[in-house]
Amino acid sequence: MPTGMEINVCCAAVPYRQPLILFAQTLCPLGSQAPAPPRTRYATAAQGAGSAHTGSGAAGVSPPSQSTSRPYSQRQAMEAGEGTEETPLPLVLTRFQLSEEYGFLLPDPLTELPAPYGPWMEIAHDLPQLIASHRLRSQVHQMPQLSTRHLRGREELHLAHLVLSFITMGYLWQEGEEGTVKVLPQNLAVPFWEVSQALGLPPILSHTDFVLANWRRKNPNRPLEIENLDTIISLPGGESLRGFILVTLLVEKAAVPGIKAIIQAIRAILQLDEETLHKALQELAEAIGDMSKALKRMHDYVDPAVFYAVIRIFLSGWKDNPAMPDGLIYEGVSDEPMAYSGGSAAQSTILHAFDELLGIRHSEESTAFLHRMRDYMPPPHRAFVEEIHRAPSLKQHVLSSGDARLCTAFNRCVSALAEFRSYHITIVTKYITVAAAKAKAGQADPGDRAGPSAVKPPSALEAKGTGGSHIFSFLKSVRDTTREGMISA
């Protein structure tokens, strides 16, 4: 494994430099830089809000932290490069790297990186087999340390983050909970850190990588349906992993009309257009209902035994995880261990946006966790949620209007959101609680359904989500506080 501060591109040594800081300036809002490691030999990295993990129960290193004191439009216009102080712009999807057709999904993601990154792609495309044969770590140790300077544009950066995050999770969890490592090798850690800085994302697998940027059409001319979709990069779990990713993707896709309804609702409030507001609330409630319908397809495509025994460990992080209590050292980045949460549905921007629009107020503990999960979203998506928070209160507008139709439409939205969260609890019960009990009783052997796998089921997170929350108390709390957001007759 290469050592020192030389980076090899296709075996040609070049002096180390930080080529992606320019990308960081264009892709992250001002005041929203990528995280900085402790002041060590890599302390020249862009300064952010990270700090060393102390092991004392503190939060550890946070992913990119944001300044929320000014509207996003005043911090930096993402698409047009307008960075001057100005009157806040109207909510427009493209300002937040959102798509009219795909919402928060990355539109038609790239599936291959430029030729210099062949060593990364070769390992990434073979991850299930490498993990099952216990060869991934040795392959990573032989991997050249590649410069990130050949990466151009947001699409290539997202694919690089996807690839490096999947390799990292496989490397960490190849031997299960009992065989974790304390150090991520430099040839993986340094480029992963740099790409993360450029995107304003943490150096760990998040919902953005796992779902938003990890899909492709089998036939580019056919619609976005699960039969015509596949993942770009995979991990152990076979068809169940594919189903888990793609059903979650379809939930994101079902939310798109709801995202557009948010824009319409805020605009209608500002223009005192009650008819348009009523229509927007109807569309929002319908979109949330469609999200619940999409989520129900999980039963058709994901085997609970495979999810619990095989897939779940690879979504686990190294914060609030007893299997890795000290966090992880990113070699060449920091001499001190850092802690990051694993992948979590709470990292999806959708429900955060709906909560803000509807004025849902969760408990202090749940709010703290949800706000921490926002640090795992792309900065433009996070800024979208912040902008909704700053908009005029929908609930207060409905209350003051005295319009019974608006009140009914508002409550339909809140009810649909509570029902979605209730159904999420049903899914979690089946795929974690019941699956864990069956695994303990020896009644659930995933067998060949999981594809190649050699990892034991995780036990450290039996009562927690992969993001580190106490899963059932958290899910029930947010469901209940959602219900409390209804307007009383």
Record the SSE blueprint.
Blueprint: E1 6-9, E2 12-15, H1 21-27, H2 72-75, H3 118-124, H4 127-132, H5 136-142, H6 153-173, E3 183-184, H7 186-199, H8 207-212, E4 216-217, E5 229-230, H9 238-254, H10 256-271, H11 274-295, H12 298-301, H13 304-311, E6 329-330, H14 349-358, H15 364-373, H16 379-390, H17 394-401, H18 404-440, H19 471-483
Parallel strand pairs: 3-6
Antiparallel strand pairs: 1-2, 4-5
Helix pairs in contact: 1-7, 3-6, 6-7, 9-11, 10-11, 10-14, 11-18, 13-18, 14-16, 18-19
Query: Strand share of the residues?
Result: under 5%
The SS-based structural class is mainly alpha
Tell me roughly what share of residues is in helical segments: 40-55%
For the largest beta sheet, what order do the strands appear in spatially?
A: 1-2
Question: What characteristic shape results from the CA principal axes?
Answer: globular
Largest sheet: 2 strands, antiparallel
Query: Are there runs of 5+ residues with pLDDT below 50, and where?
Result: 1-89, 464-469
- CA radius of gyration is 22 Å
Summed up, the helix count is 19
What do the pLDDT scores average to? 82
Compute the number of strand runs. Answer: 6
Intertermini distance: 67 Å
Could you state the order of secondary-structure elements as H and E?
Answer: EEHHHHHHEHHEEHHHHHEHHHHHH
